[in-house]
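Subject: Protein record for review, amino acid sequence with backbone structure tokens
Concerning: The relation between a protein's sequence and the shape of its backbone.
How to read it: Take the token row as a discrete description of the fold.
Enclosed: The protein record, placed directly beneath this head.
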Amino acid sequence: MKKDRLYIFITLLIICCTALTGYSQRTNFVKAIGRAQKKQILIRWAVNQPRAWKLSNQHGFEVVRYTVIRDSVILRTPERKYIGILKPAEQSAWIVPANSNEYAAIIAQALYGESFEVSSTDKETILSSINKGQELEQRFALSLYAADQNFTMAQLAGWGLTDTDVKENEKYLYRIKSKVPSGQLVIDSAAVFIGLKDYKPLPEPTEVLAQFSDKTAVISWDYNSLKDYYNSYYIERSSDGKNFYRISERPIMQMSESDAVKPSGRIHYVDALGMNNVTYYYRVRGVTSFSEIGPPSAKVSGVGQKILEYVPHITKSVINEAGELELSWSFERAGNALIRGFTLSQSPTEEGPYIPVIQNIPATQRILRYTKLFPTNYFTITADAVSGESRTSMSVLVQPVDSIPPQAPQGIRAVIDSLGVATITWAPNTEKDIYGYKIFRTYVKTAEPTPLTDTVYIGTTFTDSVSMRITNRKVYYTVTALDQRYNQSAFSTPVAAVKPDIIPPTSPLFTKCELTGNEVLLRWSDCHDDDVASHVIYRKSEEQKEWKQIKKFGAHTSGEYKDADVAGGTVYTYTLVAGDSSGLESKPSAPVSIKVIRRPGDITVNAFDVYIDRQNRYIELFWRDSQDNVEEYQLYKAIKGSPATLWRVLKREEKRTVDEKLAVNTEYSYGIRVVTRKGEVSKIKWLEVKY
């Protein structure tokens, strides 16, 4: 190994890595990662502080493996396997690898060197000027960098292991603990949960780009998305797209991720090309902390080109009386022979994109006119090189005079919710120079609208807050459009937003409730609210718990209703509810009650009939009624010419009876009356039977 070359490499690393050690938190802990391969598991670990690194190298790291899952079942008691205490190999074990591997030399020097230097012929070097107080941090940082680049050397240093005693149907927990006594320094342990089934092929680097210029190519690729896989990368180049070779001996890495220097998310590398006008191909491969090299990225290619030496400059850009752009530019006459001509490009914004609008302008021309202008324009002039890269001028701003306002906005809609939040929407204007809108409100359609914004509003949806306490039901909105010159359109057609109805109607009022014959007469005063839509009468008897709707009227009623569906001896209670067009209901009116008097004629059976069976010598009596409070039925019997006597008393469930004590050629009179639970007695209904 050439020591002077290694010295230069270490010097550059120290300069870059000095930033790496300053940002870490002072808490001491072990950090570990794992990688499953097809037949083995690789574990790699490190501590996060220089002092913890030094002490852990002295005392070692204890590694214990626990088998946690077997055949997809979690073991009740994990199986423990003691792997051992791993320390850096003795100094003598580093002699051979250090002579052939620069990463082994760095780790060995960090672990065992009396001072962290690499021998050189120079008496005064950059390394010798480093503050001795930072020497431990340099040992720490560079040894970890070297271990990240060579997993074999990381294992020799006691900072990694390869476990081949593994099975595909098992999953393991590796616990790595620093053996530094807690009284000397507290260092948190680490763990990795992994199994062979966690193996995944390494991904390809993504978003690889190549930008070519004069004998130079800038290669860049996405770093952030794959930083959990790769810590460094190799760039490979080819001149035929088939045979690739690495352009550097050492992999390329992102050296700093400190809070002070936020990474861009991409790595950039500048490669020098052998010559211009030759196609070069590039691809990128990632390198893991376990020295695995991932698959190549997709190829990118390009050609280095000589940059045109001369650059055009726009010197004049004015609008003439005809509304045309007059544009002139300067360009060295010596460059005329090097270009095909000029191209005028236009964009409505400074950022672009710039679209070519006039091409093939002669190389000797320096002035032109252009008429297809936007309200705001940015122009560039490009000198189109015969060969190599063209050159483009700085952009200039051109704004023609504009006094024509945009059209009034269309499609205005406004909706107010129950909380008083109004949402106003409209269709966007189609003018290219539209800037924004102003929204106006009024509570009276013919009144002057009041602006709701102090500045131009960007967007086509606006929210407003209106008072729900104000009695007006409608709020009117209108919108104007403004262009980039602040020309304002006429008002849009006003649109009315109707407030949601949250106030129920007033309750109607009963004015009379009386019994007229067999009907209950109800009279009331209507609800007179503007939005009243209905009046509904509800009734219940003293035996009912729920109100029952018996009649529904419209917004305006006669104020009178006769309830004929009533039963004597029952107390009825009535209430009246008004409803509005929004479905809200008033509070029920003050209820009114009335008792319907029961007359004796009201308490009777509906039908009373007889069946005579002379062959079997009996008479069957049967009846029906619609009474719901019957206590019993009393039946009377008499022979014609004799007084009637109480013959039988039957329960309310019984609706028939048979008389077998009969004499031939005799006329009988049968009577029935109803006795209610309240003790009321109906009239007797008689039936004459000739047997």
Q: What stands out?
A: Confidence is low (pLDDT under 50) at residues 1-25, 118-131. Residues 224 and 265 are 5 Å apart (CA to CA). DSSP finds six helices and 43 strands in the chain.
